[in-house]
Amino acid sequence: MPHNTKYVFVTGGVTSSLGKGIISASLAKLLQSRGYSVTIQKLDPYINVDPGTLNPYEHGECYVTEDGAETDLDLGHYERFINLHTTQANNVTTGRIYQSVINKERKGEYLGKTVQVIPHITDEIKRRIKLLGTKHKFDVVITEIGGTVGDIESLPYIEAVRQLRWELGPTNSVFIHLTLVPYLSASKELKTKPTQHSVKVMLENGIQPDVLVLRTEHKLNDDIRRKVGLFCNVDMDAVIESIDVSTIYEVPLLMQSEKLDVTVLRKLNLPIGEEPALKSWKQFVTKLKNPKKTVNIGLVGKYIELPDAYKSIVESFVHAGAANDCKVNLVSVHSETITNENLSEKLGEFSGIIVAPGFGHRGIEGKILAVKYARENSVPFLGICLGMQCAVVEFARNVLGLADANSTEMSRTTQYPVIDLMEAQKGVTDKGGTMRLGAYPCTLKAGSKAHAAYKQAEVLERHRHRYEFNNAYLSQFEVAGMVATGINPDTNLVEVVEIPTHPWFVGVQFHPEYKSTVVNPHPIFVDFVKASILFNK
Ligand code: GLN
């Protein structure tokens, strides 16, 4: 018998940023806890082939999957919630859809036909949605459609899923529409009209939502629920309240009490089974909400105006904090504002300092100064990717005495290129999808901080970079006290540097933040927070 995958489509109305990703991830978590295999996919209506070429100010962090896809940050939420790896197939953009259609056209595969949005673009969208079900055989595929209904650019997606519902037949798909119920404080009223209008737009496009999830700042009473149900043609038990909560990790519990999972399963004609226990999830939320201590950690970066730019790092500290019964008060410091004169004023209040990943010259000297401060004052330090490279440059300049040492990303003419372009990157001219991406193995040295954190010698971590530690300088570094404690076993690329005489000083070329989840808080972050708590004492 062919595997019968069921599909859930999540759309958003009224405004953007309502948290479709969190609702999708929460539903996935609940269905997973009831024993279903679930994955989540994000369709993004922009024309970039992937978000890898986007400035973080545009859409926040670029999330990297195990298989090396540069994806939307919502995939980070999916992985953090359901603790499963996503892949390239989980994030599809309009650019990617058009690219495949145009490539096919150039190969003559459309046999002389006129290539059009309908059916060719919509067919390609449907193929990408079904791929997760047919190839990977999930019980349920949740597809989140980016943007807001009514946008010109999301129209082909809406049409594609309309067709899919018809093709799949009854009880094989569910449409969830997420909207906002605004509160007018002057009249002390919740307003349902924007939701009604948004559903009308869906209807104009041939889709009747089955479930409405209503974002609200205030509780919805039965009258409001009835009104929305009646005017939007949605069953009462399918009008779901999503009230604001203090942490996104409470949303699955909230959706469980609103029975979102039961409603969806019923509409898909799937057995409801036992109530999901969510024991460890609840324990995590309890720990998160009842920390026994607080620690201040400084996050030195240059995209700090936009909190989403370092999303995975921020969430990793939430997980690691809970694991340590501690609230991590993560304070952003703009690296461009750091000077040699204001170091202790800018960084003095922190029990730990993290220097963020990044690209390009802007803000780099402030990051290097932050490393110097952490190293000289024995403040626990974590450098990620560019942050690790800054640690290497700082050590070269201030300990090895190589005055103009630099990364060749910042200075092509430096006399001491301690960080240099990887051999495989020389000659690469295209910017999109050409970095060293995805998971690579790393062997950790016994006795190192990294080894103590992971409690294992072989790890697999995700990457996104073009530059690397220049091994020509390795022995000079090691003699002076900065050692390579993690190495790629195939290429000898330095993955981790440490200063063993410092209480906790670790630089990692990879991105541990992409692999931290609620169930598995990342050991590097857990130990960094632990060291920061000790520094505090
Ligand atoms: N710009 C650096 C490189 O390409 C670091 C990249 C990063 O921090 N993700 O190697």
Short synopsis of the structure:
Helix content is 36%, strand content 22%. With 537 residues, the protein is of the alpha/beta class. The protein has a nine-stranded mixed beta sheet with strand order 13-12-14-15-23-22-21-18-19, sandwiched between helices.
Question: Top keywords for this entry?
Answer:
18 helices; 9-stranded mixed β-sheet; binds glutamine; 7-stranded parallel β-sheet; alpha/beta; 537 residues
SSE diagram, text form:
Elements (H helix, E strand, L loop, with lengths): L5 E7 L7 H14 L4 E7 L11 H4 L3 E2 L5 E2 L2 H9 L8 E3 H13 L10 H20 L3 E6 L9 H14 L4 E8 L2 E2 L4 E2 L2 H12 L6 E6 L5 H11 L6 E5 L7 H7 L2 H8 L11 H11 L3 E9 L9 H13 L2 E9 L8 H5 L4 E4 L8 H13 L4 E4 L1 H13 L7 E2 L9 E5 L14 E9 L4 H6 L3 E8 L1 E3 L4 H7 L2 E5 L6 E5 L6 E4 L14 H14 L1
The structure holds glutamine.
Describe this structure as you would to a colleague.
α11 packs across α12 and α12 crosses α18 (523-536). The mean pLDDT is 95. This protein is 36% helix and 22% strand. A hairpin with a 6-residue loop joins β21 (483-487) and β22. It is globular, with a radius of gyration of 25 Å. The chain has a 9-stranded mixed sheet, with helices on both faces. Strands 5-2-6-1-7-10-11 form a 7-stranded parallel sheet, sandwiched between helices. The chain has 537 residues and is of the alpha/beta class. The structure holds glutamine.
